[in-house]
Amino acid sequence: MQPPSTRTLLAGLGGGVAHLAAVEALFRQLGHVPETLWPLASVAEALSLFVAGFLVAAATAHTGLASPPSGLAALLGWATYRDLATPDPTWSELGGRLVVDGEVFLTSYAGAWHVWLGLIAATAAVEFGLRREFGIADGRLRNLPSAAELRRDGRGVSAAAIAPADTLAAAVGGAFGIAVVARTAGVGVTPAAALPVLVVTTGAAGGVPVAGALRGLVAPAVGFGALVVPPLLRTTLTGGEGGPVFLLLLGPLAGALALVGVVESAIRRRLRGR
């Protein structure tokens, strides 16, 4: 992969500013939280929103992948819609700290930026693998491995590419696991020794569909989108109970997704052999 160009960096800069400005404008327009909790009132939160927008825009400009910006826009749009459809929360002070009675989805969106980046990284890797496999506008992809580097004789990943493909899947899965578990750790997990286990189970659930997509397998990605993403969004945006248990159960689910991928691969080989 080529290093990022000036065009890529400028696109990232524009994306970071646009993302921060959009979230700040929504906070001001909805008025669901005190001004002290608006993004620009906190250097750390403003920087995190800028970084999220920067990375998404830069990744798109550098690679031509469509899922990063569309995914971030969908997440922000969903959080905004839920805030509009939810009764206004009630804020009060308790022990010198602000507490809220009700749900504020935009606040959760802003605080979970690293979760969104992990999820977007997984979906982007899946998009890349499937577009290469099925030739879906793959001519528009840039600075990414070619189909020849990922496949051999149209029958799967070549021996020379197995290590890079698996490394990519492990890296994306690891990033996804760390991002999601970091959010869960922020609200408290007992015992703390369970956190590494949760990183492994969550990372496996994110890495399996990526590994499958790099081999042209669709079923693991579909399972990930249907069984992992919805409860993850619900838990992250609402802070609902059961987060650690859900993440622990992602381990067996990752095994099931891998098994589904093996079955799909076997069926496709049999169909090709007819």
Automatic annotation (TrEMBL):
Membrane recorded as keyword: yes
Organism superkingdom: Archaea
TM region positions: 41-61, 159-182, 188-210, 217-233, 245-267
Record protein name field: Uncharacterized protein
Keywords annotated in UniProt: Membrane, Transmembrane, Transmembrane helix
